Amino acid sequence: MLTTDFSSLLEAALKRRKPLLQALAGEGTDCYRLFNGVAEGLPGLTLDRYGALTLMQTFREPALPQEVLAVEACLRSALPGPLVFAYNHRGKKAVEDFEKWHRPAPEALAEFTCLEGGLKYLIRARHRGIDPWLFLDLRAARRLVRSSAKGLSVLNLFSYTCGVGVCAGAGGAKEVWNVDFAQSSLDVGRQNAGLNGIPEDRFSLVTEDCLTVVRQLAGLPVAGRYGQKRRYQRFQPRAFDLVFLDPPAWAKGPMSAVDVVGDYQSMFKPAVLAAKPGGRVIATNHVAAVDYAAWAETLRRCAIKAGRPIKNIEPLPVDADFPSFDGNPPLKVAVCEV
Known about the structure:
The protein is of the alpha/beta class. The chain has 10 helices and 15 strands. Strand 7 (153-157), helix 6 and strand 8 form a beta-alpha-beta unit. The protein is globular.
């Protein structure tokens, strides 16, 4: 997997990031992407720093043991200070073989606290899921939410570990709802809120299918997939000042399915209807193949059909530690005024 000039690729990546890393340090951030392989010469490899922990991840084939050692050696040479290194393979192939030979050092399996904008977030190299507890590419969106949340009611859909919700709470939101089907993720979110002194009475955790919740808030009927029926929490229609919609690329649950390529409208319509007139919906799309302009037009048409036309829609660029030299970054963020 690794090329013989990996050290030079890493050196170039760190040089490219130098202005950003200085700016991030100034705002109290010690977590960022060190190397984004798809854009910087090694597709399928990423290197992320979360405070003391540096995490190597592969997404296609697992790296060979000697390759992991080579990456760790390069990192220890290039980065100042102490470093705890861990490696996770995220691809579907050869996972069992990977688990047999790769055993992180005990200190790499501890629970760490990293900082973003001075806020504290928990991170573990390995846990019950496969995703890190904080998605670094969403930093610019979290920054925007924090800077504009004062006095607002915020609905955070597909909240995972509540990074966006924590930013809303820290930014002075009067009320934050964090909705996710995974109780384990919301448990981490509760701890993140506690670490940052966000009062529980302003920070709600809703363990439920996101579309089931937002359709009720939007005043739309709820029906299970293929006619399936399931008990679910009941909510009365109501509107929020800010709705944050951050779905996975694809997911299937007992009540709904998520497909951001084929059917983003099924999520965006209720999100728009659950936003107050004059409010905002911040929507994300994580599929690299999706063109921003075409996706934004889909959002516009969907809002018109829902009877809530978008007044303005703007892209929100990701930070420079996620370079995309073709101008089409994997993560697209649309800030929609409704």
